[in-house]
Amino acid sequence: xxxxxxxxxxxxxxxxxxxxxxxxxxxxxxxxxxxxxxxxxxxxxxxxxxxxxxxxxxxxxxxxxxxxxxxxxxxxxxxxxxxxxxxxxxxxxxxxxxxxxxxxxxxxxxxxxxxxxxxxxxxxxxxxxxxxxxxxxxxxxxxxxxxxxxxxxxxxxxxxxxxxxxxxxxxxxxxxxxxxxxxxxxxxxxxxxxxxxxxxxxxxxxxxxxxxxxxxxxxxxxxxxxxxxxxxxxxxxxxxxxxxxxxxxxxxxxxxxxxxxxxxxxxxxxxxxxxxxxxxxxxxxxxxxxxxxxxxxxxxxxxxxxxxxxxxxxxxxxxxxxxxxxxxxxxxxxxxxxxxxxxxxxxxxxxxxxxxxxxxxxxxxxxxxxxxxxxxxxxxxxxxxxxxxxxxxxxxxxxxxxxxxxxxxxxxxxxxxxxxxxxxxxxxxxxxxxxxxxxxxxxxxxxxxxxxxxxxxxxxxxxxxxxxxxxxxxxxxxxxxxxxxxxxxxxxxxxxxxxxxxxxxxxxxxxxxxxxxxxxxxxxxxxxxxxxxxxxxxxxxxxxxxxxxxxxxxxxxxxxxxxxxxxxxxxxxxxxxxxxxxxxxxxxxxxxxxxxxxxxxxxxxxxxxxxxxxxxxxxxxxxxxxxxxxxxx
Length: 633
Known about the structure:
four-stranded antiparallel sheet; Rossmann fold; 24 helices; 633 residues; six-stranded mixed sheet; alpha/beta
């Protein structure tokens, strides 16, 4: 087999000793059976039935079958991802003939998703660096970590692209084949002994597919790794690179054994593979029942295939090999030394996530750049609509309207954060499935990353909107307004995190968040003062409405220390007419506290309102954490 210059260079110069597998000699499974309840009939439905297999160190196994044959389910079972299946699983899984402990198993294995779990705004080197920081124990020094990264970049032919971005929707990055290689390399950073690949060639052309599998094969052979890959329909050259094949059809085994014996096996069963035809294409089409015209004939053919397999020499050899391995049972003692290093520290993981999120945020304009531009547009609109309001009684209502608009619509526009959070959540779910970190680290990093950006947004918005609208012109009043707006945005973003965690579908999360904001606007105390609000809406929603506390705080900030002139009316004894009767009426002035009294607000309660707002933010974040903790997909 011809190798690329990058592979040859790596084979000649690089020696990634940490990756080499010395202890795991075999990985086997016996009697894998998976059943689910049919949604319509509620009757048990078999997805996999009594599947056996074994792979030795240094071998690549191709897991193949038509759509619906159960290959993805089997891959999840073998990788100890049964929690994502929502099914009844019966399986015996062995490493070196010993039953695999799930916790220990995760430490010696890695799983590469079908969808690349990559951050588009990071470079290739940064991607591997963060993968290392999230997974390697603190005993691995920075120099050792960088050596591993350099070795993997060389091994996968990515040295030339090491400082190239992965790629975002608005900025082109590396190719599809290179992305898939980066995904595999990121999992190999922890030196796993078993590697599971879910459709590693999906979406790639034949040349890129060959390239990816070629690199994986070189790594597996040189370092004695075990690789199991589900693959749909590889080209002839790609298929030939695998050592073993497990072919599934309707949940049963149609073939399991060396790739080199596929043609002889089907010939002996009376189903010869035509000359010059891709064997992988033939066997997939042969066991595919989706497009059959004569169902009874196809079922009879499949029954013959399954029956032939169970009676075959290879089926007996597989069970015998498994039995021999089980009798040796040496996994636990041999591998324990490799597991002594532990995992990444409790503080190292959040710090790495925060660092990664900051890089993503300032490089990816979609995350916060567009939001900042949008909020600035909103600030200019607000400032020019409520331009230079004067402290007169005729413009009191305009001030109140501007306060409501500033707080409520800034909160409402937090829906723009939904796409960025859903992207972060998808990455978290994949990295969590690989055992890197849990929801606590994710929620903490997400919260801390957002704080400086939300403060910048609050400040920029206020500099434009506050002074153009001519709110109370003092420094303390301005910064108090900024504080309320900042808390408003933190609460709004926390609400987005909660709803998007609960319903991680963009359109649904958008609709739910918009509805929640509409509810908070209605019960916040502006449209209907709290004391005149229907008791149900007041006691159920008003007191947990973060917008109501923002509105109260901004109202007190504006009207608690400002007076407004009354309308001149010389026909009256005082010479003026005041719409609010306050202690300053004799001076033809309206004390702002009179406006607050009309809404039922008091001064001097700012600290209490800030405390309640912070409690609401913590509540949203804790509920978001709980949702992520309970959800596995």
